[in-house]
Structure formats: C-alpha cells, structure tokens
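Database export, one record per block. Field names are fixed; values are copied verbatim from the stored entry.
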Amino acid sequence: MAVASSSTVLDVPTLVSQLMAVERQPIDKLNTQISSYQTKISTFGTLSGLVSSFQTAVQGLNASLQNYSATASDSSVFSASAASTASAGTYSLSVSKLAQAQNLVAAGQASDSSAISSTASTVTFTVGGTSTDVQIAAGATLQDIRTAINAANLGVTATIVNDGSGTPYRLALTANATGASNAISSITVQAGGDTSINSLLAYNPTANPPASFTMTQSVAAQDAAFTLNGIAITSASNTVGNAIQGVTITLKNTTATPATLTVARDTGAINTAASGFVDAYNALTSQLRSRSAYGSATSAAPALAGDGTVRLMLDQLRGIFTTPASGGTLTYLSQVGITSRTDGSLTLDSSKLNSAMASNFSDVSNLFSSASGFATRLDAWATSVVQAGGLIDTRTKSLNTSIQGYNDQISRLEVRMTALQKQYTTTYSNLNMLLSNMNATSAYLTSQFSKGTSA
C-alpha cells in the first residue's frame, strides 16, 4: 500500500494507478493477442502476393509454350516476329522494291512570313482517293498555309524546307503512309481562288488534257515488291502482316541474293519462362516453410508457426507435384529437367528441357498445358488460394472476426475499468479522510495526555 513518507495519509493517485495496472492485465493480454493476429494477417498478405507472382510465372510458362520465333538470316534485309498462330517453316525471301511515301515540293519563296494570297481560296486535296477541302485565308503566309494543311488531317504532313538559294523557302508535302494507294493524286484550287495559291499548290499529273502545275514530285509513292518462296507479293507498307499466317515481316532493304526466314518454336523464351517458374516456386515455398516453422531455444517462433492453412497449402503443392500428368509419354517434371533438391526447392536443367523439346515438343506441351498438366493444375491451385473465398481469404476473415471479438471484449472491459477507477478513487479518498481524522484525534489525545502528566 502506497503511503506518504511522513504520515499515514495515503497517496491515492499512485495507489489507484497501481491497482488499475493489475486490473487492466486482461485488456493487455487481449491487445497482445490482437497484435499477434494483425501480424498473421500481414504475413498472409505477403504470402498472397507470392502466390500471385507464382501464378503469373505459371501462366507465363504456359503462354511461352505457344510462342514461335521468327529469325532473319540477314537482319539488314528484314526483321520478323511470330505470334502463337504461326507454324514452323523456312522461307526464301527476295526484296526488289521497298514501299515509300510520296513527297511533293513547291516552288521556292523569298520569305515564309510574307503574305502570298490577297483573297481567300478553297483548295481541294485528293489523298489516297479521298478529297478534302482546305481553306486558305486572304493574306496567308507560307507558314499559315503549312498550318492550315496540317490542321486539316489530310493524310499528308506539310513542312517548310530552306534550300539555301535566293528563294529558299519551299513548302514540302509528304504522304503520311507509304504505298501507291496513299499518294496525293491532285491538288486543285477552286474557282475564284487566288492565282498565287494556284501557282504555289496546283498539282494534277493525270489531267486530260494535261494541265500545268508547279509542284514537283521529289519522291514517288511506291509499293513494296518481294517474293516469298517464289511467290510475288506487293504491299503498300514495308511492314507485312498477312503474307504468312501469324508472322509479321518488316522489310528494310532490297536483296541481291535471297535471304532466309525461319519460323520455329521459341525455345529460348520457354527456357526463360521455365527459369522464372522455378524461381517463383522457390520464393513461395521458402516463405511458406520459414513462416510456419516452430521456434527453438535460440529463435522465436514466426507469426504463422504451425498454422494449419500454410501446412495445407504446402500439402496441396506437394500433391500436385507428385501426381503425374496424363495423355503423353512425359508425366513428371523431372523428365524435362525440373527436379527437386533435398530442401524441397526446384532446379532447372536447361539442356534437358531443350532436348525434350527437340525430340517431342507436343509431349512437353502436354506435360504443362493439358487438362492434367502441371501448369494447368498449379494455375488452378493459385486461384483457389488467392481468390475471394479461397484459403487465404477465409483464414484472414477468421482472424479479423477474432480481432473484432477481442475488441468487443476490450470495449466492455474498458467500461468496467472506468467504474473500477472511480470506485477505487472514492474508496481510498474516503479512507484518507478517515485517516486524517484519526491522525487529528490522535494528536489531540496525545496533547491532552501530555498536559495531564505535566499537571
């Protein structure tokens, strides 16, 4: 019991504080439990992220099995890419012409900022078979004309080039797309337009009878021309996506001798994806094991020590890896170079995987991607773990329910603590008053006895 050092009067605040510390021990224990559960929830959040990363790696491996690579024998002639719809094959490619965009150039002007027109003009541009009217204002400069053409989105780009001559400023029009079908076929100034605008922009090489025009063609529109396994093909673009199913070819140069295009399974991408799969699995299972291990005399137990959900996840993974795939000659991952170490982690032998793909790719694909394939089952397992209502979600909800229950208990106990503190304060304050009165009585009696003795 806390008392003042020089009297028998109680130190009520200190005494009540000490008593309440004892009374609050159940609340402290509940808060400790809540903190423990919150740590578990946070840990499950980390594990959920690892499962999602593993699922991404599994899906990446599955997708890579459908991929093809397209390789050029001479990358200066062309490049190529292949989609999953491609088929393996070898093609001879000869390029005689590259697609190019048309370019027109107007006569030079002494200034690009002086007015060219005195009256407004309507100019009709026909590009790729589509005609569009462009309004040129009275007093427009070469810069204004350039801006008006670009603002009209004709399918051409207007620029001003300085050629360094006495009349250096030349308006240049370049088709935005390559190929003959995207060319500028005519530029016509409508009746009533300014003659200076007509002199600058008029272009109609196919007029009959021939019409005079001042714009000159510096680059003609041209389609790409090439042969593929002896078949002649033309394309408005140098990027050709329909010559071979699932393959896109980008032409870069003409050829003197044929180049070779090889389309094959992308074994490099598959190896990379398999390595990513192994790494993601090892990262996940390492955390599952370490975070659910029991403590020892020298180390504290982790947050999920002995947790049933984590043990179930590990058991389910083990069951998938020990259950063979069906439908092909390959049934276990070890047959394609993915084996287990003594600590449970996986390792990849890329040469063995390459050998298996070279000898029988369809069975490798079946091992991973069939209904009983490992990638298929592991993908489904990951979904069952991280989805709403899955293992982690269910366990997290259970922990949150427990936390809510503990918080409800704490709320009820806090009400009791408030009443207890008030009761203790009143009781010991009253006792203090009684002790104070007793001290006063004692002092009085002592004084009276002293007087009687003196008499």
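Remark 1: The first strand starts at residue 68 and ends at 72.
Remark 2: The chain has a mean pLDDT of 91.
End of record.
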